[in-house]
From TrEMBL:
It comes from the Eukaryota. This is Alpha 1,4-glycosyltransferase domain-containing protein. InterPro entries: A1-4-GlycosylTfrase_dom (IPR007652), GlycoTrfase_DXD_sugar-bd_CS (IPR007577), Nucleotide-diphossugar_trans (IPR029044), Put_A1-4-GlycosylTfrase_plant (IPR044789). It holds the Pfam family Gb3_synth. Gene3D superfamilies: 3.90.550.20. Residues 179-301 form the Alpha 1,4-glycosyltransferase domain. It comes from Papaver nudicaule.
Length: 306
């Protein structure tokens, strides 16, 4: 992804042409794995975006999905008129005029250690930030199921956990970000990434980054943002997500599932599936996740084979 190609050079014009089609809301995702790894759960996540934003635009920043294989994966949505595309990003353009440029140059020239954490993972953390800074809109991971419209959200980030004693958030997450173009807080995120990058510590350049930056700027003038409670984007903790994929085995479990679905549909903008924990699980019929996806799909095929 670091190399310049014909497609990277076309990125700016292709992106502008895509957005010129008219977008109620701009959504962005990244995909750094092969197109063959883009599975049924990821496709259900795409569907959930359009279920609640039929006039939105979704751009997937990905070299592998910007291909005939990727277009085939997206074709059930594009054939129905939904505005979704995959583009190979031009990193030089996206990083230009931000602190990411110097970091990028050092990395290409071997002056900075990429570390033990897969470099693509850290690149994804930075790519979402510079894309939001350049274009503005909503970034979300591909393991996030949208449950309601984001149209009322602006300059928002979600808390993952709350201190039980103080009631104040204790950790934020970067799986969902909603920010205007050129937002100063996003610039601070990029700056912190470039100046403190550590490729050996999991989460340091992602969830922990947004947490420490917001700790520093909270209460200072010039930043306009909202920290939403865990119920907004992370209503299910990663430790508990596995149980939300299973079907009910008793009448009590069935009632609990129905009540939980009602609660989530009422309180949450979406549910993060924590793919690292749930990626190999099948969505069982009657499960919380199954019911939520059934409520948030536009094609609604292969839900229970996912």
């Amino acid at each position: 992804m670091l190399k310049s190609t014909v497609l990277t050079k076309q990125f700016v014009n292709r992106a502008q042409s895509f957005f010129d089609k008219g977008c109620e809301i701009r959504f962005f995702m990244t995909w750094i794995s092969p197109a063959t790894s883009f599975g049924k759960k990821e496709f259900l996540a795409l569907q959930s975006v359009f279920k609640h934003h039929p006039n939105g635009c979704l751009m997937i920043l990905s070299r592998s999905m910007d291909s005939s294989a990727g277009r085939q994966i997206l074709s059930p949505l594009t054939a129905r008129g939904y505005k979704v595309t995959a583009l190979t990003p031009d990193l030089q353009f996206l990083f230009n005029n931000t602190p990411a440029k110097a970091w990028f140059d050092d990395m290409k020239k071997g002056r900075k250690d990429p570390g033990r954490i897969p470099f693509a993972q850290n690149l994804s953390n930075l790519l979402r930030l510079v894309t939001l800074y350049k274009y503005g809109g909503v970034y979300m991971d591909t393991d996030f199921i949208v449950l309601k419209s984001f149209s009322g959200l602006r300059n928002s980030i979600g808390a993952q956990s709350v201190d039980m004693e103080t009631g104040h958030w204790s950790r934020l997450n970067n799986a969902v970000l909603v920010f205007d173009k050129n937002h100063p807080l996003v610039y601070k995120f990029i700056e912190n990434f470039a100046y403190t990058f550590d490729g050996n510590r999991w989460g340091f350049n992602g969830p922990y980054l947004v947490t420490r930056v917001i700790h520093k700027v909270s209460g200072k003038p010039g930043y306009d943002f909202t920290v939403l409670p865990p119920a907004a984007f992370y209503p299910v903790d990663w430790i508990k997500i596995v149980g939300y994929f299973g079907k009910p085995k008793t009448r009590y479990q069935s009632k609990w599932i129905d009540a939980k679905v009602v609660q989530l549909l009422g309180e949450s903008y979406g549910v993060h599936l924590w793919n690292k924990e749930s990626g190999k699980l099948r969505i069982e019929q009657g499960s919380v996740i199954g019911k939520l996806i059934s409520n948030s799909c536009v094609i609604c095929e292969n839900i229970y084979s996912s």
